[in-house]
Amino acid sequence: MPELPEIETVKLQLQKVLVGQELININVLNQKVIQGDLDLVVNKTVLGVERMGKVLLIKFGENLKLGFHFKMTGQLIYDNGKERVVGGHPTEDFVAKMPSSHTRVIFSFEKGTLFFNDQRLFGWVMLNPKFVDKLGPEPFVMTDDKFVETFKNVRKPIKVALMDQERISGVGNIYANDACWEARVNPSTLAKQLSAEQLILLFECVKKVLKEGIMYGGATAADAKYIDLHGLGGHYQEHFRVYDREGLKCLRNDGGVIKKITLGGRGTYFCPVCQNNE
């Protein structure tokens, strides 16, 4: 699932090409992904492109925003015939002719076309999504004290707690794994068992890996590693600490070998040597 850095990357790219353009037409190919009356934004001009947590928002007015949640396999592809902006789950569609068999909604702008693709139909396009009102604060605006207060009494594994979007928004599986490794925290440790000092260090590590993710344009999913994306995919996967490294040596050269377990239904990676909190 695309996380904060991946959505931030496509936000920054779409800001350059969509702001100031009028939305001429919307062609819905699959009603399942639609929530709300999208006709309200037709013939409106894009005022901005925003992100809240993992949700991308195209702003047409103060109370008129089109929200996109990519979930597992969602994508946005903008094409004006000369250049292409892509974001979300990387597949051959990033470089293929559009629309494809995965295209669910087509947004026609004055100077180009925006395609919302979703292979598994878990994502959505929603007018003025109330979902974002429930999101917790983003890591970059939280204070140390707020982070400690948020997690100090939580009776869940810290990695699972980090992915709770109502506590802190934007942190997904990849960056939660790598932040725990960076802070030498076992992802299975209950949040309430960590000291204030450990939580503050973890908080710094969360921000560190997210900033790196943004710098590298996000991560390209494992099933797209061998797709020739012509530079369109992210490169954070080349800097994974533990995520997707099961069976490989720990980067700290401490003799540990990365293990994989399941926490909260998600694959979880850690080094049993440097992340041993017993």
From TrEMBL:
GO molecular function: 8-oxo-7,8-dihydroguanine DNA N-glycosylase activity; class I DNA-(apurinic or apyrimidinic site) endonuclease activity; damaged DNA binding; zinc ion binding
Annotated SUPFAM superfamilies: Glucocorticoid receptor-like (DNA-binding domain) (SSF57716), N-terminal domain of MutM-like DNA repair proteins (SSF81624), S13-like H2TH domain (SSF46946)
Residue ranges constituting the FPG-type domain according to the UniProt record: 241-276
Cofactor: Zn(2+)
Record bears the keyword Translocase: no
CDD domains: EcFpg-like_N (cd08966)
Keywords, sorted A to Z: DNA damage, DNA repair, DNA-binding, Glycosidase, Hydrolase, Lyase, Metal-binding, Multifunctional enzyme, Zinc, Zinc-finger
PROSITE patterns associated with the record: FPG_CAT (PS51068), ZF_FPG_2 (PS51066)
Pfam family, one: Fapy_DNA_glyco
Annotated family: Belongs to the FPG family.
Protein name: Uncharacterized protein
Species the sequence originates in: Candidatus Amesbacteria bacterium RIFOXYB1_FULL_44_23
